[in-house]
Amino acid sequence: MGMLDASMLQALSWAALGCGFTWLMTTVGAAVVLFTRSGAKEGALANRIFLGFAAGVMIAASVWSLLNPAIEQAEELGQIGWIPAAGGFLLGVAFLIALDTLLPHLHADAQDPEGMPSSWKRTTLLVSAVTLHNIPEGMSVGLLFAMASQTPGAAGEAYLGMAFALALGIGLQNAPEGAAVSLPLRREGFSRAKAFAVGSLSGIVEPIFGVLVVLASGWIAPYMPWLLSFAAGAMIYVVVEELIPEAHLGEHSNVGTLGVIVGFVVMMVLDVALG
After folding, report:
1. Separation between Cα atoms, residue 200 and residue 169, nearest integer Å
2. Does residue 40 fall inside a structural domain?
3. What would the DSSP string read from start to end of 61-92?
4. 273 confidence band (pLDDT: 50, 70, 90)
5. Of 5, 12, 29, 119, which sits most exposed with the smallest number of CB within 10 A?
6. Which residues pair with 114 in a beta bridge?
7. Distances (CA, A) of 242 to 61, 204, 249
8. CA distance 19 to 15
9. Chain centre distance of CA 127
């Protein structure tokens, strides 16, 4: 029992560190609103590049950091590898579709909110759109740290490397995401300080869900392959539904495409080098 407690404490420390970093990067991105003019054309172009980069990071992370470990873990448990990978992936997509359908939210530069009819303010709807897809990101990092703590030897070290690579990759794409929250809030009439604070807090769900997953890891261990692929499905849904379309809005859509490619390569290199 002592070993279990020590292992859990270590996993919690790792998850708090990794997800804390991703939240810090959201905060760094949100701080842009303190120094820039809102609504600049250059900002819109940069936003497309960063949205593309975030999409590329999430695609690569879904494959190398989530689906591949899900298949390996399933086979180690004596299961057919592709069944939990495909099943969990589809469940993750279905879960995000359900949230997208039910939770009121508004994408930046959109006029009409999505989800159930609501009396929420436009600014609340904007923040809920980003918070929505921060949940699977926090889950992903927490799951890999939990796996690292539960797996002995070289395999556990490999999972630990993957977890830190994923936290680093998600952190890199969270910086522009923080700006994508704070800048529209500034345009909606928020003060710079309030837009920064709300932009930063939009990322707090990542450490919350990362730590919650680790705390539940003792119960969810048998379902880890399903949960990893669930997180991958949720992330890919966000990429296809939101990030890539928004990266190609307006002129110079090729910069969004290049952002996707660069993000994919960066995340792939991080995962292979650290995993």
Report:
1. 18
2. no
3. IIIIIIIHHHHHHHHHTTS-THHHHHHHHHHH
4. confident
5. 119
6. 105
7. 17, 20, 11
8. 6
9. 15
Q: Does residue 131 surpass a pLDDT of 70? A: yes
For residue 3, tell me if it sits in a domain. no
**0.85 exceeded by the pTM?**
no
Helix (H) or strand (E) holding 223: none
- The answer to whether residue 124 is domain-embedded is yes
41, 65, 167, 201, 207 from 14: Cα distances, Å:
40, 16, 10, 21, 11
Name every residue whose Cβ is closer than 8 Å to that of residue 90 and which is 6 or more positions away in sequence. 233
**Number of structural domains in the chain:** 1
Cα dihedral 101/103/106/111 (nearest 10): 60
Identity (one letter) of the amino acid at 93?
A: V
Q: Are 95 and 87 in contact (CB under 8 A)?
A: no
Tell me whether residue 247 is in a domain: yes
Both tokens of 257, joined, read 């495409």
Separation of alpha carbons 5 and 145, rounded Å = 15
Domain of 190, in residue numbers: 8-34+45-274
